[in-house]
Amino acid sequence: MKALTHANICLGHLTALLLLTLLTLAAHTARAQYSVVDDRGIANHWSTPPERVITLLPSLTETVCALGECARLVGVDRYSNWPTSVMAQPELGGGMDPNIEAIVALAPDVIFTAQSSRGAQKLEDLGLKVVALEPKSHADAKRVLEKIAQTLGLNPERAQQLWLTTEQAVAATARTLPASTHTLRVYIEVNRAPFGAGPTSFIGETLTRLGAQNILPTSLGPFPRVNPEFVVRAQPTVIMISKRDLPEMLLRPGWAAMQAIKENRVCAFASAEQDVLVRPGPRLAEAATLMATCLKRFAP
Question: Domain range holding 252?
């Protein structure tokens, strides 16, 4: 009887040891599986969610904050200005000219930047973790939102709900426009180079969802450099442009004679409004409202 009891105790100890081993392995595996693959195809791994975050692109800053994680930011790029609280963070240059020394000194757990950033490799060579993301379309904006939420260790439902709310708001705005909006042919200029917003860009996709036409063909890509003569020949019925770029636009050969300009069918957006329009982040619904307000002015 004593032998049987001793055997049962040993078996119990063995079972407990086996269970502890399995739990340890499971915890180790869970830590090893916490990884995120960025738009370059590069994977980064974390055992715990990053707490010290740097963003080097305004749309990425806005996405972190829209997810409710502004408090994790320890530095941002020079152009990030929404929400206004981020302007109190250390300014770390831009994606093309990041302040490497300042970034290293802040000891970030992760750096979110554009895929086109010139500093990513150098930062990685210094042992820092970089997640490069390049949103150009609505689908990209959704994917980036989910990637950032994943990197920060958030419940995926938070990103999904935020995107659903954005989509519903854009759809609601589209429903406020008259059917005649489809007759409007629009040119949207994103900077004075000039670069325009094509139909496959997030800006162009919003315009399409609002029911208007884009004068730029899909074949030119999301944000093509535009020949000013092309716009003159296309004769858009509405022009959307930044207020700061408007004076230069009026000096281009042939532009002052365009019907849209002669009849003042131009929406010139203030700097803060232009920021909303050109950032593929959580303020897409706000951008749709700005564009819809413009289109309503000129819909026949």
Answer: 177-298
